[in-house]
Amino acid sequence: MAEVRLHVNGTVRTVEVTPQVSLLDALRERLGLTGPKKGCDQGACGACTVLVDGERICACLALAVQYEDRAITTIEGVADGEDPHPLQTAFIRHDGLQCGYCTPGQICSAIGMLAEHAAGAPSAVTAHPAEVPELTDDEIRERMSGNLCRCGAYNGIVDAIREVAGR
User: Fold this and answer.
1) Which CATH number fits domain 86-165: 3.40.50.790, 1.50.10.10, 3.10.180.10, 1.10.150.120?
2) Distance between CA atoms of 11 and 48, rounded to whole angstroms?
3) For residues 102 and 41, what is the distance between their CA atoms, to the nearest angstrom?
4) From residue 104, how far is each of 18, 75, 126 by CA, in Å?
5) How confident is the model over 94-121, as pLDDT tens digits?
6) Where are the domains positioned within the chain?
């Protein structure tokens, strides 16, 4: 067992884990943060998406010991105190969810995606990779393609992200 210091949602938490414990399992089973979900456990569905130092990752593919002293944000930490994150309210307003299982990962991924876009990162559908692409619906869909919604709430998800992006 190794003792690992995780900075989660602005709080330092210490957990004991074996070296092969995933970040997802440490968050859910050791720290009781049930927002990130275990969907496929293979990095294919995005239900476990969290932010590490502002970048989105699949927590099921990450080892907890790799993220000591890094800033980890789960869905439980995206709100500003009692005020929900703008994406949280936009998802509700645009029906960007149904069962809600994928929603925490979708929202964390969208936060990371909007930061990537603002930094000028191109996607597979970006017409001119040297320029900051317009955040079209096709760009949003491509950038969010690692997050699956079995209920099919994709149109609402795209609408919510578009609203928050301000276009």
Assistant:
1) 1.10.150.120
2) 20
3) 13
4) 26, 5, 26
5) 999 999 999 999 999 999 999 999 999 9
6) 2-77, 86-165
CA angle, corner 101, sides to 107 and 91, nearest 5?
40
- Which CATH superfamily, name and number, covers 2-77? Beta-grasp domain (3.10.20.30)
* Residue range 16-61, pLDDT digits in tens: 999 999 999 999 999 999 999 999 999 999 999 999 999 999 999 9
Alpha helices in the chain (DSSP H): 23-25, 86-93, 103-118, 137-143, 154-165
Query: Rounded to whole angstroms, how far apart are CA atoms 135 and 158?
Result: 11
What tokens does 154 get?
A: 């994709």
Burial class (CB in 10 A: 0-12, 13-18, 19+), 19: exposed
Kindly state the DSSP code that residue 48 receives in the 8-state scheme. T
Verdict on whether the full-model pTM lies above 0.85: yes
